[in-house]
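I'll show a typical protein example:
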Amino acid sequence: MASRRTFLGLVAGAAAAAAFRDDSLDRVLAASRAAEGTTAEAIATDESYWREIQQAFTVNRSYVNLNNGGVCPSPRVVQEAMKRYLDLSNEAPVHTMWQLLEPQVESVRRSLAREFGCDPEEMAITRNASEGLEAVQLGLDLKAGDEVLTTTHDYPRMLTTWRQRERRDGIVLKTISFPFPPPSLEALAERFEEAITPRTRVILLCHMTNLTGQVFPVKRICRMARERGIEAIVDGAHAFAHFPFRHEDLDCDYYGTSLHKWLFAPHGTGFLYVRRSKIGTVWPLMAAEKKRDEDIRKFEEIGTHPAANHNAIAEALVFHRGIGIERKAARLRHLRDRWMKRLLAQPRVRIHTSFDPAMSCGIGNVQVEGVDTQALARHLFDTRRIIVVPIKHEEFEGLRVTPCVYTTPDEVDLFAEAMEQVIARGLPA
């Protein structure tokens, strides 16, 4: 075992060294060292600092990509790491992928667990938030008549999963609505509390919604559920590495997220957290041996999969820590507020996202009354190559706008200017 630990340590060290050889990462780390002692709020408007971050990405600047809530590009250091791992994997996959690269996932597991603030034995590496969350949704034992409580703003795939269980198992899905933005976090928690019945068995809640970027009072709702013997599953797809928090701030039993959003990890990476005492109560999506009933790795039993993707998560963590989560969140709020405040001054504009930093971060949603949202999104892309997401929900519509750390103020201003022209002149016939 000692030799194995030595081997894994050497491999992990080599990967880290390779990451630091990337000049763009060196510049990011140097800029962050120079910014030490300066508040995150001050750094948020320091364009010389953010130019170093911007140069670490290989994005196509002929587009103004304001849909980073879907999937973020990875910085160059992550792309290069993944290529190295993939090249090594293809030398002799049965050996280089399975015997050399695959064991390194344990280093990634430890690093992710440290970032989230949990035991590594509670951290499963997945391909995305949906895979992790559905493992819990489909893996909990529920019977006919059991109620599941969530909101009308939950992610469609999660709602689809519960509706399949309605058809298959006879469970009952109940959804609650809420004002957007809500008056307070307490009001959101009260909505859940009011909807609980004696038959409520599960609560699914977003940490941050994909529609408007609304942040939920996760800790309060999870503790409310636990006191009543109700399972609480947290959808963290849009939250992890977006703004500061750790597991202790949530106190949840289940948490699923994607890493190809705000961590900038390779596309097709995520994690599932399951409290250690709960692992044995959840069936995995794909069957695992009985001896793994209490092992978090049972949720990783998906057959052959690329080791390169999950190994390059390590470089994404290096890059993320190089910026610092407080600086990242402050910058994202600054860019979000830049366009939201500008458009709020215009007539017929409705902002569906709170400005309160306790209830939001980088995601914003805006509606121009009297203008079709889908047509508006097409117009922005066709005329300015601006990428946003048109949201047509049963309760509202609007554009989801999501800048990133590589986004420049000029790009945000270009979006605001284009919107002002539509507000003033309407869409072309």
